[in-house]
Amino acid sequence: MNTETIQNYTPHQSKTRKLWERVGLPASHGFILIQEIEYGLSLNVVDKATKELNIPQSLLLKLIGIKPSHFSRRKISGKLTSVESERLVRFIRVVDSAIKLMGGDSQEAIKWLVAPALNMNGQSPASLICTETGALEVMQLIGRTRHGVFS
Question: Taking the model in full, what pTM does it have?
Answer without folding.
Answer: 0.84
